Amino acid sequence: MSNQLVNGRASRQYATMRIADVEVGVEYAHRKSSWSPDASRVVVREKITGGRLRVEVLEPAADTENTFRRGSRVEVRSRSILCTWEVWPELSAAEQETRDKEAAEKRERWAEIEQQEIADPTRPISDKYDTRYYSSLVDSTEHLRDWPLPEPRFAWRPVQQQLKAAALRTLEGLPVYLARDLLAGATLWSDDSSSSVVTPDGSAGAVLGPLAPTLTETMDWANRGYLARRIPDDLLSAASGFVEACAAAITKEGGHLELPEVPQLDPIHFSGPGWMRISYGYSSGRRIHAPDCHVLQSQKTDPNKAATWPAWRLNLPGSDPCGNCEGPWMAASPALLGFFAAIAIWRHRSDKSLERWQLRACLMMLADAARARAIEVEPDRDWVHRVVSALVVGRPGENGWDAYTALKQMGGDSRTWDSARQMSALRLAYDRLTILHDALPLSLRPADQPEPQPTENLSVEAELRRTGIQSWYHSLSQVCTDKLPDLDLLLFGLPGAIKW
């Protein structure tokens, strides 16, 4: 007789007995199906060729009452004989224990799946969104289940179907359960949310909740759009490190990601990557405005239709954002939301790993910036970019004031300097103007570049008259006045003139 217990557990397959092991006149347990929980009590009356037996039914199983009747004799296959009737209670108990355990495991799996379907702001952030079960991407409203949707900043009150369509446009392409956690975090920011909800560190509410304002603003992207002014500063400051980590991950796999070059300016107004795009409004004044600033009146534009700049322009010295609108800023778009969601998860995981969806979010943001640049017919590096990149290197300190004063001749202060100081200031001015001249395209370079450089045996006034440095300075300033109105700050530094 073959063993009916395998490692202390009942086998869920047919228990086989060789016909040679079956004895006539002995009672056995017979089962028609391997998944039946019960067995019939039979006694073997005769062995038949072909592995078949003729048995007499003593006690039919509950599921065989229609075919097996007490006292009837039937032919069965020997492999349907499980064991002797004496062993059957032990085997039956073991099988029942196995069935109960498997049923409990199944209930636990279903409970876990059902729990995954709940948008809970207290749920810990998943260790990985790109697993086999979680890797599906949002591409239909069915993927959003019945998760709570935040109220966007629409001018009209949308119905549920319109809310779902707006949420789909916002979250499309993100992992389904990342969308769940974003929506869960947004519930903490809604007007009717309970203030008693405590979100522990590392939960969806704590990690992704701060992006809720950006989520609600992005839901109106197809209508008029908003500027994403409420992105947390820590996420914005971490963006450059995240992009570099993505580039390093791609390089590790044998690829290469070419990041746009940007001038190395101090983060005066913008601490994120300088290649990101800023929506701005046209103005004839010196101050820079948001596209929907009411000061612009008839020139107001919706943020999703406005012209864009590279973000590094916000950090140009002398930048003066409007006090009413706070100046230009990034428009809230689906690519922007996915990008900062990827950064939030990356920072939460202590910068250790990057998933495929995070790399995709980074590339989508780069592609979005490239598209905006193409709309503006803007090359990778225009002449303003080259000029700023050249002038920020070796920018003068306090001695820049001397060069500036020597060119401007303000109040005649330079006339009181000794000869060495006068010549040093003039030489610095000439060097800085040469850098600017060489960075300009040939079509914009003025023809009055003086030669040679000033010598130390002439007065400043005579040198200015002889070499034409001052005239050259005015010509260069005139070329740059529209694109770089605060050129002097780039040329000479002028610490203390403004907050650099």
Structural account:
With 500 residues, the chain is an alpha+beta fold. Helix content is 37%, strand content 8%. It is built from 14 helices and nine strands. It has helices at 88-116, 160-171, 176-187, 204-208, 212-218, 233-252, 334-348, 356-375, 383-391, 399-408, 419-439, 460-467, 469-480, 487-492; strands at 5-6, 9-10, 27-30, 40-48, 52-59, 73-77, 81-84, 277-280, 307-310. Helix 11 (419-439) packs parallel to helix 13.
Q: How would you summarize this macromolecular structure in one to three sentences?
A:
This protein is an alpha+beta fold and 500 residues long. It has 14 helices and nine strands.
Query: What proportion of the residues form beta strands (DSSP E)?
Result: 5-15%
Structural category is alpha+beta
Main sheet properties:
5 strands, antiparallel
What string gives the helices and strands in order? EEEEEEEHHHHHHEEHHHHHHHH
